[in-house]
Each structure stands twice: as structure tokens, then as C-alpha cells.
UniProtKB/TrEMBL annotation:
It comes from Paracoccus lutimaris. This is Uncharacterized protein.
Length: 326
């Protein structure tokens, strides 16, 4: 057999192996797609993630600034002329006392910063007649682009401190945040840059922002997903990797960030858990990015329908590579 024939046979063999590997990869990708079904994209912070269409987003949250984060949400269409009446209604609610996620708040004062209406609240115990908080929290209401927004920041001594919120190196002023706020729908990926919050987009460069959201299938108890991100212009503490539950993961890329991804199965604890965590930068004073993705199932039978182990693994394989920075 001539050398030329040998070379041709070697090349044909290599091509056959490559085609076989490609075919297996395509078949596996199709199998994952069949198990997972249609996917839907969501914007969280400065990132986009694709999740199964049957999952719904819960508790989207985004904040700007440290050590006093400012959380922004959109409250729907409203004319600027209607803002005083809206705030007056909120004050009346607070005078009577309101409960939000198991915490009781009441009215503690009001003020104004430019065209932003400030309402102070304090936590209290409704079962104690002399219950009084040492600090106040602030709700800031403003209208931009025909929509009402609320920004919240906690732990102030007085309302006068709000005007100095942007004085710190990792803080952003309330007026600057308000002027950078745009309305958006949670199921639409915006074309302009910025931080995706709950029904809001804050078009600001990175200073110090964090965002998170949960996802669940409303028809399947015990199955859920969470996604968390943070970006800092200059890290205040060392944020390099740490692992929940002592999970050992393989090296992986998450949104282009080096990290690790792993899986834990414990039939004794009735939990199936997937986690990916990536950190870029992370030393004190350096720009940093951090992302964390988790998928879990709690059930007596981890292989029970409608999410047996094989389907959970397929969801993980579909969601993890979808995470990307806008």
C-alpha cells in the first residue's frame, strides 16, 4: 500500500470520526431540546438568560450603589400631575400600617428632592404599643417617560440624608438614578444598555449594581431556579469563589466568565441541585463581575414526573450556556 493511499485512509478515518462526533452532538442537542421544549429570554441586571417557557419569573430585583443599595421598580403609566395624589394615597396607607413580605411599616415623614417625592417609613411591631425603630427607610416616587417608578433605600437617620446619597465612591445619587430610568416590560429584552430591574431599565454605567430573579413552574412544587449577578467598578471586598454545600465543580464558562459548575444529588436530603458560579476580577480595588446560576428540585422521589432527573439535567444543559451579557 502506497503512502498516498495510507494518508487518504487516515484522513477518511479522521473525517468519519469527526462526522460521528458531530452526529452524536446533534442528536444530544435535539434530545435536550425535546426534553426542555420552547425557551423564553429574560433580562436580569446586565444579563440575558433563556429559561423553559413553562417557567415564570418571580421576585425580580435590581439595586445600585453600596453600602446603601437603591432598589428601583416600575409601577405603571402615570402622568406627572398625578404624582402628588398617588403619594398622598401611599401616605394614608402607611398611616394605617402596611405589611409587606412579613414586615410591618408605617409612616415616618415626607419631603421632596427636585421632582422626586420622598416618603419615610419605619418598621414596627403591631403587638407592641411603644414599638419604634431607630432608623427610617425611604421610598422615592418619580415619573419619567409617562411612567411611575419607586426607588427604595434603607437605614437613614433623617430624610435630609437622602440629598447626599451619591456622595460615596460606590454610591449613585437619587436624582441621577431617576433621570436614567426608563419603563420596560419584563418579558421584553431592551435594545438600549443599562440595568434591567422590575418593569424598569436604569441606563447607567457600572458603579456597583446587583440583580437577581427566581423562576418556577407554577404547576410543579419544589422545582425552581435562581440567577444572581453583581458588577463593581472597584471591588470593596474579595469576592472570589466560594461554594455552597461544599460542592466540587468542573471548570466552566458562565457568560464568558471563568468559574465552576457542578451537580449534587442527595436522596437522603431529597434534593437535586445544580450550581454554576463565575467570578472575574474579584480582588479588592479591581473591577469585578460575578454571576451565579442555580437549579434545584426538592422531592421525596427525585426521579418523579414532571421533572425526572434526566429532564432536570437537560434543562441545566440548555439554560447554562444561554447566559450572556447584553
Amino acid at each position: 500500500m502506497s503512502n498516498r493511499v495510507k494518508i487518504i485512509l487516515i484522513l477518511l478515518g479522521a473525517l468519519s470520526i469527526a462526522l460521528l462526533m458531530w452526529w452524536r452532538s446533534e442528536m444530544h442537542a435535539q434530545d435536550v431540546k425535546n426534553k426542555v421544549g420552547e425557551m423564553k429570554s429574560y433580562c436580569i441586571g446586565r444579563y440575558v438568560i433563556d429559561v423553559p417557557d413553562r417557567f415564570e419569573m418571580i421576585y425580580p430585583d435590581a439595586s445600585i450603589g453600596l453600602p446603601r443599595p437603591v432598589r428601583v421598580i416600575g409601577l405603571g403609566p402615570l402622568k406627572a400631575a398625578q404624582l402628588p395624589d398617588y403619594v398622598a394615597g401611599r401616605i394614608e396607607e402607611l398611616r394605617a400600617g402596611v405589611e409587606e413580605r412579613g414586615v410591618n411599616f408605617r409612616y415616618a415623614g415626607a419631603s421632596q428632592l427636585r421632582d422626586i417625592q420622598l416618603v419615610a417609613t419605619e418598621k414596627y411591631n403591631p403587638y407592641l404599643t411603644d414599638s419604634k425603630s431607630r432608623f427610617i427607610n425611604v421610598e422615592a416616587y418619580y415619573v419619567r417617560h409617562g411612567h411611575l417608578f419607586r426607588a427604595r433605600a434603607d437605614v437613614f437617620d433623617t430624610l435630609d440624608e437622602v440629598a447626599h446619597l451619591g456622595d460615596g465612591p460606590q454610591q449613585v445619587g437619587l436624582s441621577e438614578i431617576a433621570d436614567a430610568t426608563w419603563p420596560r416590560e419584563n418579558d421584553v429584552i431592551p435594545s438600549q444598555p443599562g440595568i434591567c430591574a422590575d418593569r424598569a431599565l436604569i441606563d447607567l454605567p457600572v458603579v456597583n449594581d446587583m440583580a437577581s430573579a427566581g423562576f418556577k413552574d407554577p404547576d410543579a412544587f419544589g422545582v425552581g431556579m435562581s440567577f444572581d449577578t453583581s458588577e463593581q467598578r472597584a471591588a470593596q471586598v474579595d469576592i472570589r469563589e466560594n461554594w455552597l454545600f461544599g460542592m466540587v465543580g468542573a471548570r466552566a464558562k458562565i457568560a464568558g466568565i471563568s468559574g465552576r459548575a457542578g451537580q449534587k444529588t442527595s436522596h437522603r436530603d431529597r434534593i437535586l441541585w445544580f450550581e454554576a458560579h463565575g467570578v472575574e476580577g474579584g480582588a479588592v480595588g479591581e473591577p469585578s463581575r460575578e454571576v451565579r446560576l442555580e437549579l434545584f428540585k426538592n422531592d421525596v422521589d427525585l426521579d418523579a414526573e414532571p421533572y425526572p432527573v434526566a429532564e432536570m439535567e437537560a434543562i441545566w444543559e440548555a439554560v447554562l450556556p444561554s447566559v450572556r451579557r447584553r
